[in-house]
Amino acid sequence: MPEHCAAYCCQNRRTVQNRARGITFHKFPKDRDVRKKWEVALRREGFTASDSSVLCSEHFKQDDLDRTGQIVPLRDGVIPSIFSFLVHLQRPEKGRTTCTSRRSEESLSVASQDASNTATSHPQPQPNDDHGYALPASPTSLKARLNEALARVESLEREKKNAMAREKRAKTTVKSLLGDLREKKNVLMKSSKRGLNSTQTDVATEALVFMVVGIQGHWKAPIAYYLMNSLSPETQRVLLSHALEELHARGIRVVSVTMDGHASNIRMCNQLG
């Protein structure tokens, strides 16, 4: 996927900073006629857009973007219109050569000279654009920046709401598991039956959990747990050996075994050799 905007002299790339600023990237349309209009609007000689070419949102008007959802798509049929072209890329304007147009140009020249003299005697304050954090002089630009900020706030609110919902579901799952741990002992998870099997009703005080953790990838998966009052090192050794055999049979290569410093674990390691 392209990492930069295809517009001439545009330095915007797919970065976390640009995403935080509300800058989005949009692929060229699949429709040939609309794609041709996009290519003409770019004014890049010899440029032909590919299926993966993109433009950033700074080359579109605010009305061209649909910021009502978390994903910001373009509205149908929009054409990029905001560019910073060099002088040789700007379209020349043809002058009119009629007598009326010449007289009009002369009057405009005189008016511009008068305006220049007035401006010289009464200089106007210039806007300060040296600092990017300064407010824009145009109310339209200020409103556009405000709309972008509000859209970003709405997006962050939705992300926060989804994260809180995921956290609530995880807490409910853990709470249910802790309830099972308090109620039963010798509870063995059987993957073939997808259920719990228990032969005693005494309360379990310890849990033996087997979990596989990926080294090259960020993942982990519990494969079995055993609830009991006590477990001998011999039984732990048998269960660990069985778990390693099952993983090997499924093509999973185990490079190390990690456990806490419980006395029964140390005795089990001594038996394994």
UniProtKB/TrEMBL annotation:
InterPro entries: THAP2, THAP_Znf, THAP_Znf_sf, TNP-like_RNaseH_N
Ribonucleoprotein found in the keyword field: no
GO molecular function: DNA binding; zinc ion binding
Domain of life: Eukaryota
Coiled-coil region(s): 146-173
Skewed-composition ranges (Basic and acidic residues): 94-106
Alphabetized SMART domains for the sequence: DM3, THAP
Keywords noted in UniProt: Coiled coil, DNA-binding, Metal-binding, Zinc, Zinc-finger
Pfam families for this protein: THAP, TNP-like_RNaseH_N
Domain THAP-type: 1-83
Stretches for region Disordered: 94-138
Residue stretches of biased makeup (Polar residues): 107-123
PANTHER family linked to this entry: PROVISIONAL ORTHOLOG OF THAP DOMAIN CONTAINING 1, THAP DOMAIN-CONTAINING PROTEIN 2
Protein name in UniProt: LOW QUALITY PROTEIN: THAP domain-containing protein 6-like
Species annotation: Scomber scombrus
Organism lineage: Eukaryota, Metazoa, Chordata, Craniata, Vertebrata
